[in-house]
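Incident log, structure service

09:12 report received: a user says their structure output differs between two submissions of the same chain.
09:20 pulled the input from the user's history:
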Amino acid sequence: MNRFDSLDLGVYRGDDYFLVGYVEPAPEDGEDYDPEVDADNYGWSLVQKAESPLDENTEIVGMDTRHDRPHLDKEYLPPDVGEGDKVWLDEGYEFYRMRDFLLENWQGYADLHIYHNE
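09:34 re-ran on a clean worker, output below:
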């Protein structure tokens, strides 16, 4: 997937967060690209920014259309939690609806990440 858009969410509970939108295939330079029309797959992820540039950012939750259907990936769950990490969504979760959903709910997912991992 190719980065298409990014939104800085600021600091929450001492950490920096942002949303990143991605598409597949990548848009051509100068192309008028609409992810909902031109992308085969698209999605958004809530990301906790690494404390150091040498560390990796942490994906908290993602929504995308891979696997032939919109779904939400609960990346915040540790592998041993025993809970399903995928929530299958109804059709109609287009690129911007996914963004808006995560914009409305990102702090709750950040709290779940903190609860399960810190």
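09:41 both user submissions now match this output. Likely a transient worker issue. Closing.
09:42 reviewer note: The chain has a mean pLDDT of 92. The helical segments are 35-38, 95-117.
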